[in-house]
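Sample intake sheet
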Amino acid sequence: MTMYVSAIFKELTRKRVFLVTLILTFIFMILFAVGVREVNSVIEGDQSSPAGRLLNSMVFMMLGMFFAQFLAAFFVLFSAMGSVTGEQENGLLLAVAARPISRWKLYLSKWLGHAVWVIAYSAFLFAAIVWTIHSIGGLPLLAGDVLRGFGLFIWMPLLLLTLTMLGSVYLPMLGNGICAALLYGFALFCGLVEGVASYQGPHPALEKFFLLTGLLLPTDSVYRRSLYELVGGGDWAGLAISDMGPFSIASVASNTYLLYTVVYMAVLLMLGCRAFNRKDL
């Protein structure tokens, strides 16, 4: 396991897109912290009420986490879209598969190797956003809310990673990256549309469509549940999630739905192991 984690890290560092991703991430975090500080100083100068400052901090939290999950998703796409067919094209996969190890174990090892770095990158984004809003924006946070939000935040890119690796067994690297990005973007778009549609009241046809989308790719629903937990769940979330336009959270994923995402990932991993075991190298 350690061998695959270090091997995948070496592979990532060889890709210039990985270095560019890290540089842009640090730039984003610096600009975000500066923006929060400047806006917070203006708000304090206007002598806003404590409730107003709290609401503004929650809005910044929602916007920051939205871009953070966007960055985490593209980190997954860039790192894992060619994990099987990409290595097959350059001949690396045949050399690795020649070792006396079951193919399904090799597939799971590659998934775990990618998952370690996806979790590390997502954890950095989450911690940076939360620390910025808490220390500069003054948003009070409870440890339990932060832990629940963190667990669900890293669960979202792991779901996308599982789907991307399954696609890499069947599709060429570029085609898999485009397909996974389109699916992720479609789920994100449906979440934004659902936030706008919530102003017009419930619509049965749209609700069924959003439910079907969430079942096919649950990344956006998990992200919104993560944000809901992070800002205090039912105690405080209503202050910020009811009037944010496309960023509004019209519905929150239930615990049953989260259990479905566990089964969803397990099924995709099983399908990936089975497909990789039958793949002609």
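Comment: The CA atoms of residues 88 and 280 lie 10 Å apart. The two ends are 22 Å apart (CA to CA).
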